[in-house]
């Protein structure tokens, strides 16, 4: 539990210094410095900013965890809390500018007794202000905040999620506390403030009114998008911690083969069958006609998880749009999955407006019930899953970055599905039009670990002698069998007219063989080569060339066992 608390705090601290906190800085600075600091003494000076931060922590944590669920149960508009916060911010700004408004606002609280000795006005005002500001706090969507939002939206709230929420909210408020106390300190120390307190209050009120209007029209987003995501690598490091993974993991087992793509670096692998797009929608840019993975067989599919108020997603979107424009005619189908982080992002009208404003032309499905999110065991905004023409997930990329690698993977799969396809020049700096993003990962042939990379007729079932046939096409990073083999958990053993075919990327190919006999290596480049095999399992080099996609076939004499292929 202590580890979970520390991870939540650190993740909150990282979020608190990210560009997403920018709209809150002038607000808490003004709010912290516009109290009656001129007459306050001692600890009372810091009471106002402290209670503002307490209100933000309580409000933000509660809304992140329970806001969506409560609004849904009560049948209230999903953006109610956001607009309530904007109205409160504008009301505070007006009360600072116009004393008559301040008198009206304070009147309902006049009969409430003070909560602390020596402070007749108590702490209720700053606390309520903090609670109102908490409804406007929209931090960057790191994996920890994603976990909190998903748990709240799906009503799957456990003790780990509560601990993570509390520690994250506290960490995220630390930077805001600094600015609130800075405002208080400046107001207390500057003689100019004491002499012109009224003018400073009016100026602060104007700042709050301007920020209320700016937040209402989402004006700060342009500035946030322009600032690089300098906290992304730190957020990814937090996301890899097992305590966070345990707390954020969606329910149900991971799809078969997901673990083989655990590094999530946009490199091509064989991750397993792509889950279906099971959300109820609505669908945008399709006339509300659903799309499906099965219906997109034959196309390379990019699934892009995003949410419209996520600044990370807004910085990520231009890359996805460029890929869609460049490769749609070559066979790429992009599907945007809008899974909401906050309650107001459930509103179909808001999502439709965001899609139009962003200039998104590919299909987008609203995943308000988190059905697709959970099916993919996703934990991140943004996140990408690249699916080949056979419906197999081949690459994953989480968060911002890795754009050149992802585009190269897209190009590789388009060539794999249609070798004669004419591709345009890459649209991402650093994407290589000819070379693959990496060498093929290790390929296992036994039944225990070979099913995810096997492509062909017949099933790998340990303990059987089976007849196999090669498929018409061998996808990259997979193997196929032809002839009769004895299948074991760790290897396949040739019985009659046995051949192994592997489609690979890389300069070098090695295989682990055992038994007594020979193996004929056919690569289509030059003469075939014969390898003598005699004895226990060991590594044999079979190709040493230049980096390139290639098909390698091995013809095996009876009794030869093949365990793995490795590449370099």
Automatic annotation (TrEMBL):
Keyword Phosphoprotein: no
Residue intervals passing through the bilayer: 6-31, 52-74, 80-102, 123-151, 157-181, 202-223
A GO biological process held by the record: cytochrome complex assembly
SUPFAM superfamilies: Thioredoxin-like (SSF52833)
Thioredoxin domain span: 268-415
Gene Ontology terms: cellular component: plasma membrane
Compartment(s) where it occurs, according to its Swiss-Prot or TrEMBL record: Cell membrane
Main location: membrane
One Pfam family per UniProt: DsbD_TM
Matching CDD domains: TlpA_like_DipZ_like
Its membrane topology: Multi-pass membrane protein
A GO molecular-function annotation: antioxidant activity
Protein name: Protein DipZ
Originating gene: dipZ_1
């Amino acid at each position: 539990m202590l580890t979970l608390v520390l991870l939540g705090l650190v993740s909150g601290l990282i979020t608190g210094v990210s560009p997403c906190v920018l709209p809150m800085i002038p607000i808490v600075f003004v709010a912290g410095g516009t109290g009656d600091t001129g007459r306050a003494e001692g600890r009372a000076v810091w009471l106002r900013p402290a209670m503002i931060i307490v209100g933000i922590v309580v409000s933000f944590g509660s809304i992140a965890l329970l806001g969506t669920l409560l609004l849904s149960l009560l049948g209230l508009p999903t953006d109610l809390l956001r607009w309530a916060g904007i109205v409160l911010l504008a009301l505070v700004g007006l009360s600072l500018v116009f004393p008559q408004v301040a008198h009206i606002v304070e009147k309902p609280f006049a009969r409430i007794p003070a909560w602390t000795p020596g402070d007749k006005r108590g702490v209720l005002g700053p606390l309520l202000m903090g609670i109102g500001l908490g409804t406007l706090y929209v931090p960057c969507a790191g994996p920890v905040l994603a976990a909190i939002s998903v748990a709240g939206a799906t009503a799957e709230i456990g003790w780990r999620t509560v601990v993570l929420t509390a520690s994250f909210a506290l960490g995220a408020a630390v930077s805001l506390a600094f600015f609130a106390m800075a405002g208080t300190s400046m107001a207390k120390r500057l003689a100019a403030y004491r002499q012109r307190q009224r003018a400073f209050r009016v100026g602060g009120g104007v700042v709050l009114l301007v920020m209320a209007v700016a937040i209402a029209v989402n004006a700060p987003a342009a500035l946030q998008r322009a600032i690089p995501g300098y906290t992304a690598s730190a957020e990814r490091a937090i996301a890899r911690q097992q305590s966070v993974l345990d707390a954020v993991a969606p329910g149900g087992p991971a799809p078969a083969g997901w673990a083989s793509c655990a590094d999530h670096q946009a490199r091509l692998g064989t991750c397993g069958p792509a889950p279906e797009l099971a959300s109820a929608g609505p669908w945008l840019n399709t006339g509300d006609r659903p799309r499906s993975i099965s219906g997109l067989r034959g196309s390379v599919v990019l699934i892009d998880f995003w949410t419209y108020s996520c600044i990370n997603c807004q910085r990520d979107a231009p890359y996805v749009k460029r890929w869609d424009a460049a490769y749609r005619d070559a066979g790429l189908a992009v599907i945007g999955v809008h899974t909401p982080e906050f309650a107001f992002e459930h509103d179909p009208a808001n999502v439709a407006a965001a899609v139009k404003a962003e200039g998104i032309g590919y299909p987008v499905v609203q995943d308000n019930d988190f059905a697709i999110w959970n099916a993919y065991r996703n934990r991140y905004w943004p996140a990408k899953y690249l699916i080949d023409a056979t419906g197999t997930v081949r690459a994953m990329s989480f968060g911002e970055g890795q754009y050149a690698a992802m585009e190269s993977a897209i190009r590789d799969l388009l060539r794999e599905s249609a070798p004669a396809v004419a591709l345009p020049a890459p649209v991402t700096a650093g994407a290589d039009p000819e070379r693959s993003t990496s060498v093929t990962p290790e390929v296992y042939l036994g039944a225990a670990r070979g099913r995810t990379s096997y492509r062909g007729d017949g099933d790998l079932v340990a303990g059987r002698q089976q007849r196999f046939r090669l498929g018409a096409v061998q996808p990259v990073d997979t193997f196929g069998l032809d002839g009769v083999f004895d299948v074991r958990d760790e290897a396949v053993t040739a019985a009659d007219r046995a051949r192994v075919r592997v489609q690979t990327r890389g300069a070098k190919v090695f295989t682990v063989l055992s038994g007594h006999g020979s193996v004929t290596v056919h690569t289509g480049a030059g003469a075939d080569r014969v390898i003598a095999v005699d004895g226990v399992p060991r590594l044999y080099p079979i190709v040493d060339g230049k980096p390139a996609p290639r098909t390698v076939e091995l013809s095996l004499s009876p009794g030869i066992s093949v365990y793995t292929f490795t590449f370099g």
